Structures are given as C-alpha cells and as structure tokens.
Amino acid sequence: MTHRAQCGPERDPEFFRDVAEVFAKHPGASRRYSVRCLAAVTEALGVDFTKQVGVSRVEGDRIVTEFRSRDEFPHEGEEEPPCCELAGDPPHEFCVCYCGL
Asked: Between the CA atoms of 34, 78, 91 and 23, what dihedral angle is there, to the nearest 10 degrees?
C-alpha cells in the first residue's frame, strides 16, 4: 500500500506545538501516549469511526487492529473494553480503538 495521508507537523504546526507543550508539562504521561493520524485509516481503508471502532490485540511481535461495527460493543452485560485511542473534540471525545481484547 502506497498511500500518504496529509498529516503531521507540516500540515498542522500549531497543533503539534501545543502537543509538545502538553507533553513537556506531563513527562510521565508523554511516555505512554502518542499522536496518530487518523486520516491514514479513514482515507486508505475507508473506515468510518462513527460506525466502526478499531479492536487491537497482540499476536506474537505484532499488534493487529481490526475494524468492527460499533454495534458489537459493549456486549450485553459487559463493561465497555478499555479504550486506548480517543478522537473528537472535548467534551465529545469518543473511542476509536479498544485494546487488550
């Protein structure tokens, strides 16, 4: 696949300056988080995060992410799985990827 999303510090320099300030303010947390370009998934794979959610799992030395219908989560009688990736504007953030399933 040779798709290049239009993302990154060159595209959104003010956003990345703000992120750098937040990471500097919270050095412990900054080692647990990263910034990811969702356009790579939405454009290249056609994922619609209003209808789908990523589900990641570890398989050997790989992290595999599949995109499933949001209707599958949470399962009846179960708590929502842990969210490892959020998107959206506060206060309306939503999970785009569940981890550890």
From this structure: -20
E strand intervals along the chain: 52-59, 62-69, 83-87, 94-98
Specify the pTM: 0.73
| Integer Cα distance of 44 and 16 in angstroms | 23
Split the chain (101 residues) into runs of 10 and give each run's mean pLDDT. 71 94 93 87 90 92 92 73 86 86 59
Give yes or no for a contact between 56 and 101, defined as CB atoms under 8 angstroms apart.
yes
How far apart are alpha carbons 44 and 56 in whole angstroms? 18
